[in-house]
Amino acid sequence: MIARLVLLLSFALVSPSAVAQFDHSHAQWAKLLTKYVVLIDGGKASQVRYAGMQQERAQLKAYLATLSTVTAAEFKAWSKSQQLAFLINAYNAATVEKVLTRYPDIRSIWDFGKLFGNPFKDKFVRLLGSEMSLDNIEHDTIRAQGAYDDPRIHFAVNCASIGCPMLRAEPFVAERLDKQLDEQVVRFLSDRTRNRYNAASNTLEVSKIFDWYGDDFRKGLRGIRSLPAFLASHASLLADSPAEQKLIRDQQTAVQFLDYDWTLNAARS
To answer: Does residue 149 sit in the same domain as residue 35?
Structure first.
């Protein structure tokens, strides 16, 4: 009888958060993305209906709150795929929330400021027991040396800008993460407004992202150990003719980085 009472008491003392399992399907975020992300250019890019997101901001905040309940210890017990999906979704959802704090009076995420109110350095997200900024999530956690070492994340995290790889119309999930990241690479590199081959100058004109994060493409993902090698491996996406693709595969082209468009990725009414 005493043993039974002790057992019942122990269950009563367990907090609901300890019993609840984190939803790795990210269903709350999925509902918002499905409703308010608009695919354009044949699915190579997307825009966001921020006005609709604003109407359901309470749901976005609720999702971010569920992320904040995950402890560092719980996070460490997850698979690498679960961790990375969690971090990418957290970054993207937090970025949308940041925009909504000023929407519709915002034309670029840099409207928050660069010295004061910097949107990437302000610590406004509670994650893994700490107050974090977007830079903390991306550079200090996702890109931390030896953590994931996957350059494809640069096509998955979205900075609410036209120049940025698209915000996916679904959350990243562990069981499909590798496929989703590969799809993001294809979509971004196939977008001729941001990556293309210029036959007149025999130059690959690619996103500024490759300039900022070129070192990440040297980390050996699938045996690729340089940015030129990464671009060469995707020659079929960057040019149309077999001859042009061969030049890219053989790394016989110059590389030029395009200006980045920081205009807000808002859907037109």
So the answer is: yes
